[in-house]
Amino acid sequence: MLGHTQRGGTPSAFDRILGTAYGVSAMELVLKEQWGKMPALANGRLENIDIKDAVKGLKLLSPYFYDLAKVFFG
């Protein structure tokens, strides 16, 4: 996955399984003709949600993590 390459790390077993699970879940939605839905990781499991719900608002970074990132990126 490109994201891991950009961050300089190797995907873990969880990352690899999660990627496969996203693909399987997305294909199941196609086979069921459930257009406008997408798999999302929530509470440790994949759930199918409406895409409009996924993009309806900004998802902001916690100030804690923003301050933590300043240590590395200034």
Topology:
Layout: H1 2-7, H2 13-31, E1 37-42, E2 45-50, H3 51-54, H4 63-73
Antiparallel strand pairs: 1-2
Report a brief summary of the structure.
The protein has 74 residues and is an alpha+beta fold. Helices cover 54% and strands 16% of the residues. The chain has helices at 2-7, 13-31, 51-54, 63-73; strands at 37-42, 45-50.
Describe what you observe in this structure.
The structure is a single chain. This protein is an alpha+beta fold and 74 residues long. Helix content is 54%, strand content 16%. It is built from four helices and two strands. It has helices at residues 2-7, 13-31, 51-54, 63-73; strands at 37-42, 45-50. The mean pLDDT is 87.
Strand composition percent: 15-25%
Largest sheet strand order: 1-2
Q: Averaging pLDDT over every residue, what do you get? A: 87
Strand and helix order: HHEEHH
- For the terminal residues, how far apart are their CA atoms? 27 Å
Radius of gyration: 16 Å
Largest sheet: 2 strands, antiparallel
Helix content: 40-55%
This entry's quaternary arrangement is single chain
Helix/sheet category? alpha+beta
**What count of helical segments does DSSP give?**
4
Shape: flat
Low-confidence stretches: none
Beta strand count? 2
